[in-house]
Amino acid sequence: MPQTPAIPRGDPVRRTRTVERTFEAMAAEVRAGLSGRPLPELPCKYFYDERGSALFEAITELPEYYQTRTETALLEAHAAAIVEALRPVELAELGSGAGHKIRLFLDAMRSRGRLESVVLLEISETYLRQSVDRLQADYPEAAVRGVVGDFLHDLPALGPGGGRLLLFLAGTIGNLHPDELPAFFREAAAALAPGDGFLVGVDLVKSPARLHAAYNDSAGVTAEFNRNILRVLNDRLDADFDPDDFEHRAFYDTDRQWIEMRLRARRPLIARIPAAGIELVLAAGDEIRTELSCKYTRESLTARLAGTALVVERWITDPECLFASVLLRRT
Ligand code: AVJ
Predict the structure, then answer these.
(1) Beta carbons of 280 and 159 less than 8 angstroms apart
(2) pLDDT 10s digits, 124-156
(3) Which of the four pLDDT bands, split at 50, 70 and 90, describes residue 8?
């Protein structure tokens, strides 16, 4: 059979304003975060350089870290039914789309003959380009495009919805502060047309011991992942952190229902980040907050949906109620 010649097309990847100025933007964010009171903090998106992404991959395979395998099983069981119910023609994902999970949806859409387009929103351009190229090769019938951006600011860059199913998997929504959820959900609703779906992976409130173990694994992978954020600052902002000066700490705050990750200085130290104009002075025991991972119940999540034009259509969970795949629908 003759090969169809490749149709030349423009660059399928687009940058948003927020990332066109990454270096300055990063320096400003780091400066603002580290001067935070009472606790200096760093934006958790900076965990994910190549090494950080590999460490996160390793975390997903740890015996203590139930989230990834639980969500995968939920989606393997329910993706086809979700596609059946919504009949989307476009799949959009917040995150790189590199994984097995997006393909469960693409395959279900394809087998219904309704896969027209795919759009990925992802912070790392390198990662995004790989994902776009791979998905385009494997789903040639679809128009695959990417947007380099972050999910807090750049949802409008997805363009208008309509026949869209938007995915936000892996419990990443837990990295937003609960107070940011209503505005985030409103932005997501604006990227959807009435009837469109928004599938969100949510880690659920559960026994503190189970949560503690998931973020304090016995192999020490999470500790390395946590310290990696300092290496990223060293690489990108020319900072002079010695990651070994810091101890990993992760604990569950039962009142606020979130896991907090911190790095604690083992000794008094001064870290310099010339690109951000920072000299960070720490005493032994001082801490930097590096991540929030918020846990929800059906009630606490639903409360954040009030006034957002999104309603819970299906709440899909495992028998132990560890994790939920929440299908929201735009009213
Ligand atoms: C990617 C946000 C889902 O909070 O569990 C894993 C990242 N941090 N171990 C999470 C993470 C520490 C993860 N999410």
Answers:
(1) no
(2) 888 899 999 999 999 999 999 999 988 999 999
(3) low
Give yes or no for residue 291 CB within 6 A of ligand 1. Answer: yes
Tell me which residue has its CA closest to atom 5 in ligand 1.
Answer: 293
Closest CA to 89 of 10, 194, 166: 166
Ligand 1 touching residue 293 (CB < 6 A): yes
- Compute the mean pLDDT over every residue in the chain, rounded to the nearest whole number: 94
Distances (CA, A) of 325 to 45, 67, 177, 279: 22, 11, 19, 43
Lay out the sheet containing 246-253: strands in order across. 246-253, 258-265, 287-294
Confidence (pLDDT) at 1: 47
Q: How far apart, in whole angstroms, are the C-alpha atoms of residue 297 and residue 251?
A: 19
DSSP structure class, residue 296: B
Residues 266-291 have pLDDT tens digits of 999 999 998 889 999 999 999 999 99
Q: Roughly what angle, to the nearest 10 degrees, separates helices 221-237 and 22-34?
A: 120
Residue 172 Cβ contacting ligand 1 at under 6 Å = yes
CA-based angle 159:87:130, to the nearest 5?
50
Please tell me the pTM assigned to this model. 0.94
